[in-house]
């Protein structure tokens, strides 16, 4: 079941024109929303942040503005059936909204961490990296390669071998007594959870830094994790590459700081809002 162009469709097939830019070029803007307590109003659902990201992307790309009330209606139809909602907007304003469940092994990954593969290519950053567009081929290829090598995530790098982001989220590293996240510099997605975590940590007087993750910086990391709106915080216990491998603790005390955000915000009073 999915929602497309103002209609709910009880099928798993979507018909689009053979010359549709979304098919030919991956021309779409999308966002992936985890629905907390079946509500768009829940603070961790962050509907307003997702709406703003889509709206800003559409404006920057000079695409037709969608019918936002219709988009919101489609999300509401699906949120009672799925834990995760993906909203995609096409250049002409059409909306395609689909749903899925949370990963079955999510709790295990949150507790026990995962293994990640460091992409070997000298430059593996996404096209239009600051936007969440349908052209995610670089990330998809990296993730599939990582899984074939026995890892659960891939870490993308730029032409100078600086670490950027994972194939599905933003990186966090602990060193020098605080958390650090890679600098944006137009090369990574300013993820919603990344932004919220940085602001929350700063508001609670918890140091958090943003730097370019050069190889020399990465060498001093004591703990590693990644975040996105679906999985929250996932520790990374092993980084494997063609020439070396590194391990990190999954019980590092600094991880409690990142997890505290979800505990605190999850208990916050729900406030109504409209986009």
UniProtKB/TrEMBL annotation:
Signal sequence, start to end: none
InterPro entries noted in UniProt: Aminotrans_IV (IPR001544), Aminotransferase-like (IPR036038), BCAT-like_C (IPR043132), BCAT-like_N (IPR043131), Class-IV_PLP-Dep_Aminotrnsfr (IPR050571)
GO molecular function: lyase activity
Keywords annotated in UniProt: Lyase
GO cellular component, as recorded: cytosol
GO biological process, one term: carboxylic acid biosynthetic process
Source domain of life: Bacteria
Pfam families: Aminotran_4
This protein's record includes keyword Transit peptide: no
Recorded family membership: Belongs to the class-IV pyridoxal-phosphate-dependent aminotransferase family.
Stored PANTHER family: AMINO-ACID AMINOTRANSFERASE (PTHR42743), AMINODEOXYCHORISMATE LYASE (PTHR42743:SF11)
Protein's name in the database: 4-amino-4-deoxychorismate lyase
Organism (species): Merismopedia glauca CCAP 1448/3
């Amino acid at each position: 079941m999915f929602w497309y162009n103002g209609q709910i469709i009880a099928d798993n097939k979507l018909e689009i024109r053979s010359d549709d830019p979304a098919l030919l070029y991956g021309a779409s803007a999308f966002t992936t929303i985890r629905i907390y307590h079946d509500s768009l109003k829940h603070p961790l659902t962050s509907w307003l942040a997702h709406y703003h990201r889509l709206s800003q992307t559409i404006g920057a790309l000079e695409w037709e503005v969608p019918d936002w009330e219709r988009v919101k209606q489609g999300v509401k139809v699906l949120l009672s059936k799925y834990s995760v909602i993906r909203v995609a907007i096409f250049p002409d304003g059409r909306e395609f909204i689909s749903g899925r469940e949370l990963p079955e092994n999510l709790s295990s990954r949150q507790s026990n961490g995962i293994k990640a593969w460091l992409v070997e290519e000298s430059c593996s950053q996404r096209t239009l990296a600051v936007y969440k567009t349908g052209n995610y081929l670089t990330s998809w290829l990296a993730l599939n390669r990582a899984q074939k090598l026995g890892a659960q995530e891939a870490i993308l790098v730029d032409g100078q071998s600086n670490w950027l982001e994972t194939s599905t989220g933003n990186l966090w590293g602990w060193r020098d007594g605080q958390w650090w996240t890679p600098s944006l510099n137009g090369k990574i997605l300013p993820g919603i959870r990344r932004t919220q975590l940085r602001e929350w940590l700063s508001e609670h007087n918890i140091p958090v830094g943003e730097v370019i993750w050069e190889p020399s910086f990465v060498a001093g990391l004591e703990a590693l994790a990644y975040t996105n709106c679906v999985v929250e915080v996932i520790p990374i216990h092993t980084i494997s590459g063609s020439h070396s491998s590194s391990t990190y603790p999954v019980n590092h005390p600094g991880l409690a700081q990142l997890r505290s955000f979800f505990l605190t915000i999850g208990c916050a009073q729900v406030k109504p809002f409209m986009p």
